[in-house]
Amino acid sequence: MTPNAASGPSRRKFLASTAVATAAVAGGMPLLSACGGGSDGGSRDGTTSGKDAKKLLPTYVAGNVVTPDIPSKNGSAVGFTSKLDLAGLKTSVPKKLGKGGKVTVMSPFWGSPPKEDNAYYKAMNDLIGVDVVWQNQDGNTYDQKLGAVLASSEVPDVVVVPGWNMTGRIPSAIISKFADLGPYLSGDAVKDFPNLAAVPTDAWQRSIFGGKLRGLPMPSSYVSGIVPLYRQDIFEKEGYEVPRSCDEFMALAKEATNAKAKRWACLDMKWTAFNAFGVLSGNEKSLGWNQVDGKLIYRAETDEYLEALEWTRKLFAAGVVHPDAKLGKSNAADPGPKFAAGEFLIYNQDTSQWWSRTAEQATQNPEFKIWGMDFFGHDGGEPTLWAQNPASIFAFVNKNASESVIRDVLAVANVTAAPYGTKEYMATNYGVEGTHYTVKDGVPTKTDQGNIDVMNAYVMVASPAATIAHPDFPEVAKGQVEWQQRMGAFTKKPTFYGMQVTEPNRYTNLSNDFEQLEDDIIRGRKKVADMQQAVSDWRSQGGDKLRDWYKKLLDENGTAAS
């Protein structure tokens, strides 16, 4: 199953990218569904919000250790554009909170895990005061390992669960296998862990599973994590204008395409189309619902959804889409080399690639410039965008863990959630100076050893509020944050925003075939009418009953959207 397939590229690729390896974007992307409602022995579906949730949430205490160069606005990440001053790094954890215990952590890992006794792990454990032992698992097959471990009696002290793996029986296992962290974090208790107290409340709301605060979150901006990236250098050279409507995009695409010269306008632009037509998010089932005039409407039932598919189909039919995308390869293969070669000029991807493409081409092609295109309303007006959920990956603690183990885990999380500009952030994301990175002119650069040791480990336990910082390319960091701020001004929160919702098992597979049908329609293999029939079947096969279930959920819990 491809995470977020209906509204964004694979988060597996995002997490495996150098963007995370160098902490280019601190905080993940909102992902798939989890669960809520009921106590340990109670309901396995539903949600927890309103007054019930407020009793569980940690008190928010904004951090004051570091001041960002660009503050958050309209739901954006905070941004840092100044050079790093290692001598001026702040301390956010003045004393070790760990008591020297041993904690095992199972987490997905993309790439080859380093040796267990590597210098990075040793330095982090010494900084925290906890002996963290990593059980790294292949991120590409993590769902299989996760299912097997949670079905057994041998559950590690901490298990990291990405949102896209919360399918099947995993949500129920989370409720039954993992500890309630409320006694340690709810209300003012969180003040024992100041960096966790500075995690945004929305992210903690997403960490409520089965009526208890169980997860340690990786926060993210609620603004779309997907941006239409384009070759700004070629646009400037050719005199192309950035399009502000679907008609302008089509006209540009036809002008820019020259198949004989091996240049096409774009890859599959379905995700941009969904934003241009104001289609509700598809990256989590609960986000696909919104209440309109007192009635809950699902994204696939809307005219906007069909119009977005039709417009994307026209792009393919016009021959302006790169042949790789016609074959369905646009999301399976790395688009970087052909984008750098100028074979296509526009594609949708995680905002992380704005920086990573810039970095990889800086020495190879100095003329290369990638930039983010603003979303436009299909008719040239302002776009209607829909919020993503404000947390993505979660770390859970074994329910059988002792109080000392739980406090040691929270000591780990309090360090890994340190903000950018602190000694703890540098240690977590870059390792040991001289061994794992060097700094020249305020820009930290990983060494070969750093690229081996300092990968996706500690960052998976907990993270600070969404942060964008690229000391090597501060103009990109500024561009990314300002893009989020502009798009955030047009972003609305759907009815079930920020709520952990688990649908009853009988409904979980209802819309599974929609994604493949979308792709068949836009490539001309199926017709829009086929989607209309599929939606009709969806309603009769349980969609209308699911609507009633969501309406009851809404009546009982209210909405977290504002």
From TrEMBL:
It is found in: Cell envelope. SUPFAM superfamilies: Periplasmic binding protein-like II. It holds the Pfam family SBP_bac_8. Keywords: Signal, Transport. Transmembrane segments: none annotated. The keyword Transmembrane does not apply. The keyword 4Fe-4S does not apply. PANTHER family: ARABINOSE-BINDING PROTEIN-RELATED, SN-GLYCEROL-3-PHOSPHATE-BINDING PERIPLASMIC PROTEIN UGPB. Belongs to the bacterial solute-binding protein 1 family. This is Extracellular solute-binding protein. It comes from Streptomyces marokkonensis.
